[in-house]
Amino acid sequence: MEQLLLNIHLPRKKSLDNFIVGKNNESIEAIQNFVKSTDQLFIFIWGNEGSGKSHLASAVEEYGIKTIEDIETYDDVEQIKIFNLYNYHKETKQKLFITGANSPNHMGLRDDLASRLSWGLVYQIKNLTDKEKILALEAYAFEKNMKLSHQVINFCMKNLRRDLHTLIASLDALDEWSLKNKRLITIPLLKELLKL
Fold it and tell me: Cα(103)–Cα(33) distance, rounded to whole angstroms?
């Protein structure tokens, strides 16, 4: 895996357009409306690790919107600062996009901050199913013009961490390894890359 990480390309720019939606149509539509709206100032997105919260935060930042990620990791002093920042954004009518591991009232946050975060839109981002991840990998490979068999994708799904970030990084590394060694992308090549 260390060898794989050494060969990862810089990730493609994260946008709302290249986010793999899965069962998150309503949430993504709400975020798209949020970035365009002049009325909606706050949105809170929560979900498990690997659900795509960081992708969405990066995409929203491209619109000049302030983002705060993983709010559950902030201590009491930092939470007071975020509470004050929230109030400032409300007064000055500036947008704020915040992510967390759970809904605002289920992370042990300060009561005043949890209450504020619940005032705006709150949406859960659901993880992709394995089938959706396979479709996402196939679409990504097609976009990069990679010749990739179903067997290679299935091997990745069975032998690598299954979050989409790791899987896509694996394809990038495999593509680079293939070009460097002037060999077709195969399971033996992938095993060689992973030192299996």
Answer: 21
Domain boundary among 98, 124, 150: 124
* Neighbour order of strands in the sheet with 121-124: 66-68, 96-100, 42-46, 121-124
What's the Rg (C-alpha) of the chain?
19
Residues 88 and 167 in one domain: no
Let me know whether 40 and 93 are in one domain: yes
Q: What does the pLDDT look like over 24-66, one tens digit per residue?
A: 999 999 999 999 998 999 999 999 988 889 999 999 999 999 9
Is 16 within the bounds of a domain?
Answer: no
- For residues 114 and 144, membership in a common domain is answered with no
Cβ atoms of 159 and 194 within 8 Å: the answer is yes
Q: Which domain holds residue 96?
A: 25-124
Percentage of residues in the chain with pLDDT exceeding 90?
A: 52
Query: Which pLDDT tens digit goes with each residue over 103-132?
Result: 999 999 999 999 999 988 999 999 999 999
